[in-house]
Each structure stands twice: as C-alpha cells, then as structure tokens.
Amino acid sequence: MSQLVFFLGKGGVGKTTLSAATAFALSRQGRKVLIASLDPAHNLGDIFGIRLRNEPMPVADGLDGIEVDVAEWVARYLDESRREIKANYAYSMSLNLDSLLDILKYAPGTEEYAVLWAIEHVHRTHADTHDTIVFDTPPTALALRFLAMPSLSILWTRALAKLRGQILAKRQTLLRVNPDAPVPKGAIDKREDRVYGKLTSIQTRLHALHDLFIRESYLTVVMNPDELSLAESLRIREELDRLGLTLRSVCLNKAVPAAAIPKGLAEHFKDFPVFVSDLRPGGIRGLQGLAQVDICGLVRHIGSL
Ligand SMILES: Nc1ncnc2c1ncn2[C@@H]1O[C@H](COP(=O)(O)OP(=O)(O)O)[C@@H](O)[C@H]1O
Ligand SMILES: [Mg+2]
Asked: pLDDT tens, 142-188?
C-alpha cells in the first residue's frame, strides 16, 4: 500500500476534486486517511464544504483534512537560514544579512524547499496515525519542481560537502605547518565542523524524501479529453522519467460519458492503466458529490501497490 498519493496535471483538470474523491473513497474502505492541500490557492475546503486550516481536522469518518500554509513554511525556512547564517558567519561584518534574505525570499527554489519540508513534516507527523496521505498538489510547474528538488539538491550538496572537506583538509595542513595559524576553532575536523554537519544532515533529509517519492508514493497524472492537457501529461511523464520517479497511472477526468478513450491518450499511454471519471454537468460538491465520482479502479490500483 502506497503511503503517499500525488495527483499531478494542468490547472483545472480536476486534481483537487479527484484527490478529495480518492481520499474519501479510501477512508470509506476503512483506511485512516489524511488529505493535505499544498496549493497556496486553497480550495480543498470548498469541496468538502468546510473551512480547513493549517492543522488537521476531521472531514468524515476516518478522513482528516489539512490546508498546509506554504507561506508559513517559506517564512520558517527563511528564519532558519537567517539563524544559521548569523551563527556561522558572525565574523563577516561586511555581509548585509537583510538584503541577502530579501534575495533568498524570492530566489528560485525557495518555495519548492518550503513545500518539500512541509511534505516531510506532514509525513513525519501523520505516518503513524494515518494509513494513507493524499496530497492535493500545487499547479504543475511547482509540483514537478518540488519532486525534482531532492535529486537536484543531492547533487549540489554533495559538491558543496566535497568542497568543505577540501577546505578542512587545507586547514589541517596549515595547522601542521604552523600550530598558531589563525584557523577558526571547531572547523578543522569534519565531525566537529558545523557547516559540514549541516550539509550532511540536509543530504540525509533529501535522500529520505527522494526515497519517499520513489518507494512510497503513488504518482498519477490527471488529464481531460483535450489536446492541451494531453500534451501537459506527456511532459509530466517525461519529466518524472528523468527524475527516476514512476508514474503509476493516468486519470481521464471530465470524460464524455460512454465515449471511447481519446486516440492520443490510448496511443501515448498504452502501457499505463487509464482510469476514467465522467464529466458531471452539475459539478462536484460535498461528500455526496464526491461519493458519486467513479474512482473505484484508481482506488483499487492504489491499494494493490
Ligand atoms: N468530473 C467532473 N465533472 C464536472 N466538473 C468537474 C469534474 N472534475 C472537476 N470538475 C470541476 O472542474 C473545476 C476544476 O477542478 P479542480 O479539482 O479544482 O481542478 P485542479 O485542482 O486540477 O485545478 C472545479 O470547478 C471542479 O468542480
Ligand atoms: Mg487544485
């Protein structure tokens, strides 16, 4: 049984709706489920007809919901960075910390990291109490970037750790030649160096997250019967391939009732299970609406892995 479930796809295809329907269906099978929205434009609560918050609250029997406050995670990440920079670079008076943090706030990657640490936190705090965590992901671009973050960051933290190791080795050489050399205390041995320690601990966390995405996550892509969402789904599949992540299935949502599976979809995704949910003209609202979404095939597939 996959512990985590992620719905990917273009905006508006029905990720939030299918996440909610799937989470609800899993909970009705007797699983303890948490549904967590990572989309900063939260609309998960609207579907259930309740106001969700940054803390889990009961939505139905066996189903809890949470809207993760991504902005708070960005603030937390910046705050942590501020404390670390201050602690490690206190000697560097020329460093203008505030302007550096302003840059960091809008730097590429900041929001992805925040989302990543939020997932880590949600998983760590709820894996023991819930069988499955369904994530309602943010729009495609960000979703793929946070999935890419662990493998990308492992590369650069590895390079940085190597560099730091070289600096420490040079300091040791320097001290051997001249025991009075002005070398910072506690920053000679890898085991005692804070920077090296920090890099190693980030690497451990990133590896764990990458493992989580590879081993314990069910990734599915949602599309509609139109060319644009098919193109986006193909792009997502390629991107996941590149990241070494496995796409498990395709959900065709808002399908024309009783129509055949669109040719392009059948052709390009012939090796994947395709689960179809029909277009419901009245829209989908509330637990009653969600219960009517045809999601059995997907739910069975998630349960079978
Ligand atoms: N099968 C469906 N039939 C009819 N309306 C749907 C269906 N799936 C989703 N919708 C509607 O489409 C809109 C976008 O769905 P949503 O789940 O918010 O997409 P996303 O999270 O991918 O942006 C919402 O108004 C939702 O109610
Ligand atoms: Mg959504």
From this structure: 788 889 989 888 988 999 999 999 999 999 999 999 999 888 777 78
Atom 5 in ligand 1: residue holding the nearest Cα: 283
202 sits in which H/E element: helix 194-215
Dist. CA 185–CA 200, nearest whole Å = 20
In this structure, are residues 45 and 52 in contact, taking their beta carbons and an 8 Å threshold? yes
The backbone torsions φ and ψ at residue 44, rounded to the nearest 5 degrees and listed phi first, read -65, -45
The whole-number pLDDT of residue 109 equals 82
Phi, psi of 231 (to 5 degrees): -60, -45
What's the pTM?
0.90
pLDDT band at 1 (very low <50, low <70, confident <90, very high): very low
Using DSSP, state whether 159 is helix, strand or coil.
helix
Domain layout of the chain by residue ranges: 4-304
Nearest CA to ligand 1 atom 14: 12
Q: Which two tokens stand for residue 49?
A: 């007809």
Name the token pair of 117. Answer: 């640490």
**Which residues lie below 8 Å from residue 110, measured CB to CB, with a gap of 6+?**
74, 77, 78, 104
Distance from Cα 18 to the centre of ligand 2, integer Å: 9
244 touches ligand 1 (CB under 6 Å): no
Question: Residue for token digits 């990458």?
Answer: 210
Q: What is the whole-number distance in angstroms between the Cα of residue 16 and the centre of ligand 2? A: 4
Looking at the chain, the number of H-run helices and the number of E-run strands are 11, 8
- CATH architecture of the region 4-304: 3-Layer(aba) Sandwich (3.40)
Q: 303: buried, middle or exposed (CB in 10 Å: 19+, 13-18, 0-12)?
A: middle
**14 ligand 1 Cβ < 6 A:** yes
Indicate whether residue 11 lines ligand 1 (CB < 6 A): yes
